[in-house]
Design brief:
Blueprint lengths: L1 E6 L6 H15 L3 E6 L21 E4 L8 H14 L3 E5 L7 H6 L4 E6 L9 H13 L4 E4 L2 H11 L5 E2 L13 H11 L7 E5 L8 H14 L4 E5 L6 H9 L4 E5 L4 H6 L3 E4 L8 H9 L2 E5 L4 H4 L7 E3 L3 H13 L6 H11 L2 H13 L1
Parallel strand pairs: 1-2, 1-4, 2-3, 4-5, 5-6, 6-7, 8-9, 8-11, 9-10, 11-12, 12-13
Helix pairs in contact: 1-14, 7-12, 10-13
């Protein structure tokens, strides 16, 4: 098949990394794959962060479409589709307004839209809600949800049945050539060799609720000063991000963007996520692949992946609750077996399984 994947950019983010992983797997299976992005990644290099992980078999095209919406921009996208002649157009995040006209006039191309979050977080304004509902209801654009919780949110919001649900997946995380160097770096942050290492992987954003994360670990430092928290992601150089860095205790290290996040996960004991809402985070799946014990807020698709005290620890959206989850892990660090987490990942969230399910709906 000739498959066109479309997303705004390949900046740091779970949806962006997922599109790269899916494109790579489809190309390895022998399909002709083009990955198209809109935002100018030459003017803003961070827009292409995840491009470094793209398989050379995948054709990459950056249309350099600026923010905002216009008929001229729609025409540019349609001209590109005409040139590419795909059998499948697979949209990610909120790019589907650029494909409304094509969906209404060209029934030869199947158009899919993966909703990478709870349904109410995937559109802008009431007008788009009703337009989306029209296209979904008439199967002109075929929605796909990424977890059971996201599927339920779609059904509640749109009151439409039979939406596809395909759990997010990711490749198994393996050590990179930078692993020995990374292991030494992580060891240098620890006061004692036995201190547990926690890791948080996300851009600085209100959704990710990093202030609660810092407050919980600051509270931990007043009781037990034997731990290390690594924070990997961009955006912490903003005024609010810098303020958060200033208030963080000395056990917390802000490392910025890293191309080898997997190496840091492999050097860590527990994975921390304090999001206010989520779809099904790729970073969580990568952590499971490494045997990192998740300590997460019980939001969105996270609760589909983790049962409290079985595959990790869940908390509500309060500092005290999250602090209690951290302490539960520290009091019994070996209660949840790393190998069990890896098996849980391989059985449910591998990239191969996920890709095979997308191919099934492409053919359907």
């Amino acid at each position: 098949m000739n498959i066109l994947q479309v997303i705004y950019s390949l900046s740091q983010g779970g949806a962006e990394r997922f599109v790269v992983n899916l494109s790579n797997e489809l190309a390895e299976k022998g399909h002709q794959v083009t990955l198209c992005t809109f935002r100018d990644d030459e003017a803003t290099p961070t827009m292409s962060f995840n491009r470094q992980f793209l398989n050379e078999k995948v054709r990459y095209v950056n249309l350099k479409i600026s923010t905002g919406f216009s008929i001229k921009k729609i025409k540019r996208v349609e001209d590109f589709v005409k040139e590419t002649e795909p059998d499948i157009i697979h949209c990610h995040l909120n790019v589907i307004p650029y494909f409304y006209r094509l969906a209404a006039t060209n029934r030869k191309i199947k158009i899919f839209h993966t909703l990478h979050n709870l349904a109410e977080k995937t559109y802008e304004g009431k007008c788009q809600f009703y337009v989306n509902k029209f296209f979904y209801a008439n199967r002109l654009i075929r929605p796909v949800t990424i977890s059971r919780e996201c599927q339920l949110s779609y059904e509640r919001l749109y009151k439409l049945p039979e939406v596809s649900c395909i759990n997010n997946g990711c490749p198994e995380v393996l050590p990179s050539p930078l692993f020995p160097e990374t292991h030494k770096e992580v060891s240098s942050y620890k006061a004692n060799a036995t201190d547990p290492v926690f890791i948080h992987v996300a851009r600085f954003h209100p959704q990710k609720n990093q202030e609660m994360l810092i407050n919980a670990f600051n509270k931990l430092a007043t009781e037990k000063d034997q731990f290390t928290l690594l924070i990997i992601g961009n955006g912490f150089d903003t005024p609010k991000g810098l303020e958060l860095q200033q208030k963080a205790c000395r056990n917390i290290h802000f490392l910025g963007l890293k191309p080898n996040v997997g190496d840091y996960l492999l050097c860590s004991d527990a994975f921390c996520l304090t999001s206010q809402y989520e779809g099904l985070p790729i970073s969580l799946l990568e952590a499971l692949s490494c045997g990192c014990v998740p300590i997460c807020t019980a939001v969105g698709g996270i609760t589909d992946v983790i049962e409290d005290k079985v595959e990790g620890y869940l908390s509500d959206l309060s500092v005290d609750s999250y602090f209690s989850a951290i302490k539960a892990f520290m009091n019994r660090p070996n209660y949840i077996n790393k190998e069990t987490l890896k098996i849980h990942f391989k059985s449910n969230y591998s990239m191969k399984q996920c890709t095979d399910k997308y191919l099934q709906i492409y053919h359907s």
